[in-house]
């Protein structure tokens, strides 16, 4: 590695990593069995380490079958003897002037036990789904761990999702207990979570809502249904037995967007998921006992599940939770927090890096960042300019940068450098993790050898993989295992170079990745179409300097209607209501029609190119590829002419 003289040292040697890679590749079952014994505390030994099939006729994924464990015990109780007084969670509030909170592992044990008892008192039984709709406060992690302690799978819904989005997730997994807070704070503003819960639950009966008092603002209250967390906590014991559950017992459901239909509830189970989150946390971040680790994601996303809560806590680490935003009170907030707590491992998204880069270096350099060792990136491709700035300005050229490619479905890192060992060309996620077998397929389904570009698939199972889609195994099989039979299809395209490094090229389906948030075109279009003047719509992602992608919408109006500012505002309002504030449209173009195939399918490939400005006149139509299959090629002219910029 060319910069090795100035990069901080890491624990891994090339020889160690090489031997692990070989062991995991040659015999994954033996490798993961050894790791599972080393990293986790089991109540009983499994009989079958790996029982997996990617055959579309029989997709089956089971790890550590017959083994039992308690996930919360692994994340808390087993650390008490040696780390009882060690901070487990450091909480930094939205406002730097408000008091921070530090929960030791002993504190966490007490709080999680109490919360688990609260859930039991509400009648929650093993297997019952609990929805968590919380701000970024320790109680979000406490609620998750309390569910894990009693074997009740949680479904965390990101606080930025709307009441409608929350309701559909509550209904899909049929959860009758919702854990929320009166509100959350972001950039000095109150986010009225309780109000959203009230709207989401309108007309639904037999639910209980546990409300943590956080902001203290007035909220409406439904007697019998709503219970204050703090009041119930006083009535329950601070001890709650951690019972063993099967390795394949559901741990959580997490909803994510696909190209079609409603969001999918990916199901993760206990033993394999926890092992994989812990293992990747330790190796990818080169975790050491004295590290202070901070992942800036929200617990509502998989990154928050695996790398704020489960991975770090199972490893006995100190994990920092931040309620606020990177630019409040100013663009130096991240680095102020790094200095304040001497953060050594830092994990964020390219969109935040690009946003802060734009604000200038002064906001960074005025704070002491000498504690930093490892910088991580996740959620979207990191462009080389942002990579260089992160490395040079934030990391002062002394930190290893790990660009980690993975997904909600994968549970943990899949392609990532191991710090100190792998070369890190900016923009490449580099090498497969231990035991991961990427395959690139061409459109004919052939596996490509050597340097190539294609559909990124994985040839064999790994312990952290999602097991199914809640309530719809057929959709799971169809989405991930049917396009390239015998392998898991990620939905991403990737390029593999001569050195075997992977460069993620982005989604091959209609998913839009805006500011690291995964948004499905179908959900967005459904929200737009809810406007009474809109006949039809199609949205595509266009490149955006800060957010990676932004949303460009083409709308067809009903007869005698025309798009005006009022309708534009109303459409964005609908999106906020149906999906949430994370989904807003950058451009809305009125279109006379949409380019369609004879079978009625909208040709998004063409819309994407038009929206991105790749086609500006008829002279450029060769860029669109074959448009002869369109029923209405004349529409293209009108779309190109009407393009907004
Ligand atoms: O397109 C890839 C992109 O994010 C998608 C997964 O999104 P989600 O399930 O929300 O999980 C995000 C956090 C793991 C992927 O299909 N993606 C994620 N990480 C990277 C990435 N694209 C390029 N480089 C990455 N490091």
Explain this structure to me?
β6 (130-133), α6 (138-150) and β7 form a beta-alpha-beta unit. This protein has 645 residues and is α/β, with parallel strands linked by helices. The protein has 20 helices and 31 strands. The strands form 8 sheets. Strands 12-11-8-6-7-14-15-24 form an 8-stranded mixed sheet, with helices on both faces. The structure holds adenosine-5'-monophosphate-propyl ester. Adenosine-5'-monophosphate-propyl ester binds at residues 256, 302-303, 378-381, 403-408, 429, 490-492, 504, 506-507, 513, 518.
Q: In a few lines, what is going on in this structure?
A:
This protein is an alpha/beta fold and 645 residues long.
> Could you tell me which ligands this complex binds, including any ions or cofactors?
adenosine-5'-monophosphate-propyl ester
Q: What is the β-strand count?
A: 31
Query: What share of the residues lie within helices?
Result: 25-40%
C-alpha end-to-end distance: 43 Å
Tally of DSSP helical segments: 20
Give the DSSP E fraction (strand runs of 2 or more residues).
15-25%
Assembly status: single chain
Give the rounded overall mean pLDDT.
Answer: 95
Rg of Cα set = 24 Å
Main beta sheet: strand number and arrangement? 8 strands, mixed
Q: Indicate the low-confidence ranges by residue numbers.
A: 1-5
Strand order of the largest sheet: 12-11-8-6-7-14-15-24
Shape: globular
| Helix/strand structural class | alpha/beta
